[in-house]
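Before the break, one more example. Copy the sequence into your notebook; we will annotate it together after we see the structure.
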Amino acid sequence: MHFAPKEVDGLADLETNFSSRDVTAWTFSVTQESEADAYFPRIKRTSQFDLTHALDSLGMTTAFATYTADYTADSSGMTDDRNSILPSVKHQSFAGINDSGTKRLS
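Here is what the structure looks like once it is written out:
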């Protein structure tokens, strides 16, 4: 809850006359049910991270190296091409708020 004077130069008067009775009255008045229009800004955020270095430092080194990566049918069954490697690993996320609600994707 925020308190502010109605007049530009009314802060001193508010500080002088501020009492617990006023706080109780103000609190009670805002807890009464009433209709209000609320507007929220439309927000859209995206981010992208390159995880190649992080995964490499965690020990996932062979996936990024030309001579050690093995995604052939003998190893993982992903491909028959022995020259396949992962050039990089990226993570991208999106968050948006609009009139319809919130959307998040990763």
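The mean pLDDT is 76. The two ends are 36 Å apart (CA to CA). Try to locate both features in your own notes.
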